[in-house]
Each structure stands twice: as structure tokens, then as C-alpha cells.
Amino acid sequence: MLRRLAASLTLKLVALIGLFVALPIVLYGQFESADSQMQILVTRAIQDRSALIAEALAPVLRDTDPSEPMNLNRELAKYASSGTVLKLMYQPPDARTASRFYLVASAPPLGPEAVTAELEELGQRGILQRLSEACTWNASDEMRYSRADGTVELLTSIIPIRARGNCWILTTTHVASEFLDTSIGRPYWQTREVRIAAAIYLGGALLAVLVALGIRLSLRRFRNVADEIALGRAVDATFVQRNTVPELSGVARDFDRLVHELRRVSREIRQSAEDNAHSFKTPLAAVQSALRPVKRAVPEQDQRARRALEIIESSLARLLALVNAAQRHDIGTADLIDAPRVPTDLAPLVEDAARHFREILAARDIGLSVRLDRGAVVRTATGMMEIVLQNVLENAISFSSPRTTIAVSLRVSPDTVALTVDDEGPGIDPEKLDSVFQRYFSLRPEDGIGSDRAVEHSGLGLWIVRRNVEALGGQVVALNRPGGGLSIGMRLPRAVIH
């Protein structure tokens, strides 16, 4: 069972789907955590860089007199870089309560007409208030905000610089789209790396699904061809014609070759059965014809010669019965190979078999109990299950005593059909139960129950039963009943039409 599960393509497909579902969840969490750590490192690096710029500007600002014209753009430009906006603000001592600041330098530089607009924007976003608090508490600060045009700025660091009792503020602003391309300032799933990985992942998942669907469709085509061959609809082998997967071309050719060989063997078996039967029956008929004048010529009082003629006639009849049995056996074997397997309801077959043996049962005073479920459909060739029912019932009748009952039951489950024939005969030695289905095996006594001298038995009845049932994908078993008698149980796969 475990080996079958391990080889199941469906189970592997389910595992693959589970992997595809679980993998992005696990990896996304890991990558998002790593990105968060990188964000912290980037933020800290920005803060440290801003602090270093402030330290570098401090000596220059200590030598600068705010009451005189200042030209600090050149100093600030030394520390400017792509994607970074530097601003140097100054708060006069008498403007601390009003949170008023002057923009004295910027990198890249701003024109005189843009300074007023820049200060208004800082005021509207509450940044001037944060600048005032930084001067009051002499503490660094940081904040994020979006520009009016929707651009998301990564981080604005606010660094106070004390020089000659004056408060200067250095602000450094980094735009997310221009700084390391991290997810700072936007959801992690919007980063380019995640989108590329998602596209590759979805492409791989789609490819895996297409491969799985291709294999499934190819197997379904093969199954449909096999069904058509089993039903006798496909005259020519068509696996190659139906196959669309180049890698399965070799398998399709092998299947076609196998079907061709099986049909050839079936024809040869039928031809051989007919030839052999004809070859044996012709001399036997000649011997029987030659015996008639001999029998008429032998005097009635010559009992010894008469007994010899009876033995010869009995042996010829037995030989003819064996030849006919062998012919039926070979033709049945050919039918197992090549005859169409069509969906067949077993209930009408059981009813027909019961009617066929009705007179024999009445003559022997044997009862018959039949319990049938409807819908007991199996796939079988014409005559295969009829022979099974005939042989099993003949076996049960021959071993049944008068005033006993043979019970036939047909039960249907979702996947199988169970056919059971119980008699009330003597049963079988438990050590020989496994041998009753062997070829030419017979336990019939010379006299008493089971002798059945009226019928020529070749020891093939139950062997044919097992052969036919197993050829249909089923199983057959013989068991001694607790109350006496033998039970022959057959279990066949229920037909599923595709």
C-alpha cells in the first residue's frame, strides 16, 4: 500500500501544489524580515551620515556671523550626493517662540523665488515645528513624508548644530526611489526584486501545471484508446495516432505492437483449436463408424466381446468430450485475449442461469435461493461470465444432496461486484482448498454425492472459473462454510465508463 502511494502521480501532484503554496509564504516572510533589517541599517547609516555632515559643518558655522551675508551653499555642496537633498536652516534667538527659521543654504541650491515656497511647504507639513523642538531640546529627529506630487521621500533627518549660542538645523532628505532601491517608504511586495521573483515563480508554477495537465491528458487519451480496443471499436491500433507528446511516442508504438501481437496470437489460437479438433474428430468418427458393423457382427452370447465394444465406445465418447472441451478451452483463451469487453449487468445472467438449471434442480429436489442487487455491471466478453456461472452452479449441484438449498447472491459496492454461490454439500478437505482451482484437479468420488456419472468431467470447470474471473481483473476464492458446504466467492471490478 505504501509503495503504491509512493508511486502515485496524484499524490506527487498534491505535494507539488502544497510546495508551491507554502514556499512563497515561507520565503516572503524570511525576505521581508531581512529587508526590515536592511531598512534599519540603511536608516542608521543615513542618520550617521547626517551626523557626520553636521560635525563637519560645526567649525564653519562657529566662524560664521549670522548678522552678515552668508554664502554657505558652497560648503553644503561638498557633502551633497545624488538622491540626497541638504538644507541648512537658521533660527534667530528672538524667533524661538514663533518657530521661525531662515533657509540659508541648500544642496542642490534653490533659487530665490523657490525659497519662500519651500518654507511654506515645510510649515504646512509641520516640519518647522519639529525643527523648533530640535533646537529647544538639542536632540536629533527624523520623519517621513510625501511631496505634493506624490513622490515618497525616504527619510528626513533633523540634526541641530550649536554654534556661538545660535541654533542651526541641518536636514538631509533621501528619496526612496534613488537610494538603494529598498522597500523603505513603500510595501515590501512592491519592490522590483519581489515582483521579478513573483513573475519567475508564477511562470514556474504555470509550467508545472501545464506539464501535469499534459501528462494527464496523454494518459487519458491512452485510456480512451484502451477502452475502444476493449470494446472492439478500434479495428487498428491507434495509440500512436492519439498520442501528442513526443516523449511518449516510444510507449505508444510498444502498445500498438503489443495489441497487434495479441490479436495475432488470438487468431492463431482459434485456428489451432479448429485444426486440432478437426484432426482428432475425423479419426474418431471413422472409428465410431467402423465399430457399428463390428458390433452387429458380434454374437449376443459373446459377452466378453460385447463388453470390449462397450469399453471402446465409452472411451471414444470420452475422447470426443475431451476434444470438444479442449476446443472450447482454446477458443475461450482466444476470447480472453481479443474479444470485446462490454459493460454487462450480471443480474440478468444469473437469472438466465437459474432458469437453465431449473429442471435439473427440480429433478434432484434441490432448492435455489437468489438474492440480486441491480446495477451489478462489469466489463466482460460475451460468454465469459455465462461459462463461469454454468461451471460454478454445475459444481454446486453435483455436490448437493436432495432437500438442500443452493444460495446465489449478487452484491454491489461502489467499486466492486461480489458474486457468491453457497451449497450445503460435504465441503472440501481444508488442506486441498487451494487446489480446487488447479487445472485437471478433481475430488469427485466414484460413488455417492459428487460422483455425477451422467456428465463427463475434465477437471477444468473451476480452473476456467478462476481463469475468466482473473482475466476480468477479479478474484475468486473457495471456503468451507461453518454449517457445512462450500462457498465460491468472486469479486469483480465494477464497470466505469469513460
From TrEMBL:
Q: Does the keyword Electron transport apply?
A: no
One Pfam entry for this protein is HATPase_c
Membrane-traversing stretches = 196-215
Superkingdom classification of source: Bacteria
Give the Histidine kinase domain ranges.
Answer: 275-496
UniProt key word Mitochondrion: no
> CDD domains, alphabetically?
HATPase, HisKA
Q: Which PROSITE patterns match?
A: HIS_KIN
For this protein, the Enzyme Commission number is 2.7.13.3
Q: Which controlled-vocabulary keywords does the entry list? A: ATP-binding, Kinase, Membrane, Nucleotide-binding, Transferase, Transmembrane, Transmembrane helix
Its recorded reaction(s) are:
ATP + protein L-histidine = ADP + protein N-phospho-L-histidine
**Protein's name according to its UniProt entry:** histidine kinase
Query: What is the originating organism of this protein?
Result: Reyranella humidisoli
